Known about the structure:
Elements: H1 7-15, E1 21-22, H2 42-47, H3 52-64, E2 71-74, H4 76-89, E3 94-96, H5 103-111, E4 115-117, E5 127-131, H6 143-152, E6 158-162, E7 185-190, E8 203-206, H7 209-218, H8 228-239, H9 241-265, E9 269-271, E10 279-284, H10 290-301, E11 303-304, E12 306-307, E13 316-320, H11 326-343
Protein name: Aminotransferase class I/classII large domain-containing protein
GO molecular function, one term: pyridoxal phosphate binding
Domain Aminotransferase class I/classII large: 50-327
Amino acid sequence: MGTPDFRLYWWIKHNMGKAKHNLSSSGLSEPDLNEMGVVTDYSAFKASSQDSEESFRRAVAELYGVSKENVLPTIGGTEAIYLVNLFMAERTRSAFVPTPNYEPMLSVPAMLGFQLEKTFNPSRTLLVSLTDSNNPTGRSLSETWVKSLIDESGDDSCVYIDETFREFGFQESIGTWFKLNRDKVVVSNTLTKFYGLGGFRVGWITASEDKIEDLARLKPFITGEDAAYSLWVGAQAIRNRSRFVSRAKRIVERNKRIVEEFVESTPRIGWSNPDAAPFCLITYYDGVSSEKLCLEALREQSVLIAPAEFFGAERGFRLCFTHTDEEALVEGLKSLSVFLGEALR
């Protein structure tokens, strides 16, 4: 068992304070929760007679149209990723994780001793790990492709899909891949990105009842119980989801138009044109490594972006547009454009 770095996490954590223009944060900022219909008063929480975990599980179950027995709360999305991989480590040491992908989807199974397969072979691969929307491209997964993976997988397989950014598709009602095949599919989500509640550290796993029971037995070895206050706030946020949808849609659609103008006016780059995420993958054709390019952008123009290498890709970077301040985004992109104009000659 190795201990690889979570390079993306440390990159952002170490460099955020150095950057004037932060284009690396993939989650929306925390809104005014009172305006969102969410009570945060701690005395009200203490006076509540509700079981916070049960209330949260019911809120997620109602959101998805499943049973609360299909839901396990987690400490954010990161614990969910670790728990699912730990659960599958008892059953297999082979995983198919297509790239580019969110770094922990690759590094956690590697840390647990999995062999990461370059192609999907259903005869030996019991774990498939995906992100929807894909992180870092921001593109929705093809339903035809996901169905083919599920259909080809064996009965003991797990098709694990992290749905952290799926809600940025702004559907009237939220969908989940879990309902496509409740025996094989496991999904996870978090309130950190779409809802902007990163400080509360609330996530969840949705799976069949037997898998949830097994995952729940593993959880005490990692974190024990979740914070009751966070779950109490989280349940309210989910039940007031429509307000969060309106806010996120307003911010992301406006910002995407600004980023599109940046891409069109900046020579020698391309982009993934995301359909369901507040970020995109910017690609370039120069031979310089993405980590070197991003470090130079930070040093020369004080712009923080995330190297594609951290996602298993090359010659590119993830650019996030979660800004509530339109002017800050415009200024950051101007500085980035100046840098790229010099660096990619």
